[in-house]
Design brief:
The protein is mainly β and 267 residues long. The protein is 9% helix and 53% strand. About 5% of the residues have low confidence.
Length: 267
């Protein structure tokens, strides 16, 4: 009897250690897991498989072990993704919410049995630093000693993402990171300074004025008249015609035979 009891205890221990699903089926033991959700800004609504669960920061450690569709909503800012919950662990979801998905960033931290650290990113080929030391590019799996770690993920044209995580003994930590597009630094962009504008001057004409037409053709409709000596803003040079803007803002075409380009003048 003692031997049989010892065998039964051993079987139960093995099932609990290596066979969560078999333990649930054979022994009626329900495996539980948890999720922790935070967001910036906070007080965002959290949905699991379409069911409203609460506001961020949100945590529930009595959930069924399975994959969930997680949605976080704050005004017009929405994030949604698949999250896998592991028996006996808490999966952490952190999001910086933004109405524009390209400006949204975040990470999912998942623990599973094993050892080390795995970093996956969107976009891929992001640089990974751990505690200030460079290790390579994503996706990457590393043999890292347990303990508190600071993980920095960076990629050109994207904002850096720094994550503080605890790597426990006997587990592999998978960090899945979404990076947000960085805002352009306009101070570093060199652009030409426009301090002058090209002009044309109306020459003498047989009629004492020059017609401004709605298209670069003699068949174009007359939309205005200008006098010899008038200066017009030159917008475009065409064959036999100038597209110009008058002082009142009217735009049209004048014959290049009766107008000549003026030296550039400062605005």
């Amino acid at each position: 009897m003692i031997v049989w009891i010892l065998i039964l205890i051993s079987l139960i221990a093995l099932l609990l250690r290596f066979g969560d699903k078999w333990a649930q089926v054979l022994l009626g033991i329900k495996q539980e897991s948890g999720i922790s959700v935070s967001s910036v800004p906070s007080d965002a609504t959290v949905y699991l498989d379409g069911e409203e669960m609460g506001k961020t920061p949100f945590e529930d450690k009595n959930l069924q072990v399975k994959d969930y569709t997680v949605k976080i909503v704050k005004g017009e800012a929405i994030w949604q993704g698949k999250v896998k919950l592991i028996s006996g662990t808490v999966t952490t979801v952190g999001r910086d919410l933004a109405p524009d998905p390209t400006s949204s960033a975040g990470e999912i931290l998942t623990l599973d049995k094993g050892r080390g650290l795995t970093v996956v990113s969107n976009p891929t080929d992001a640089e990974v630093e751990i505690d200030g030391k460079s290790y390579g590019k994503t996706p990457i799996t590393l043999s890292i000693e347990p303990g508190e770690r600071t993980i920095l993920v960076s990629h050109g044209n994207y904002s850096n993402r720094s994550i503080r995580a605890s790597l426990p003994e006997g587990f592999n930590l998978t960090v899945t990171v979404d990076l947000a597009l960085a805002e352009a630094d306009l101070t570093t962009i060199s652009t030409p300074v426009i301090s002058q504008t090209p002009q044309v001057v109306v020459k003498q004409t047989p009629t004492g004025f020059l017609r401004v037409r709605d298209k670069p053709s003699l068949s174009g409709k007359e939309i205005a008249q200008v006098k010899p000596g008038d200066s017009l803003i030159l917008l475009e040079e065409l064959s036999g015609w100038y597209r110009v803007r008058l002082a009142n803002g009217t735009e049209g075409y004048v014959s290049s035979s009766y107008a000549e380009k003026n030296p550039l003048e400062k605005i």
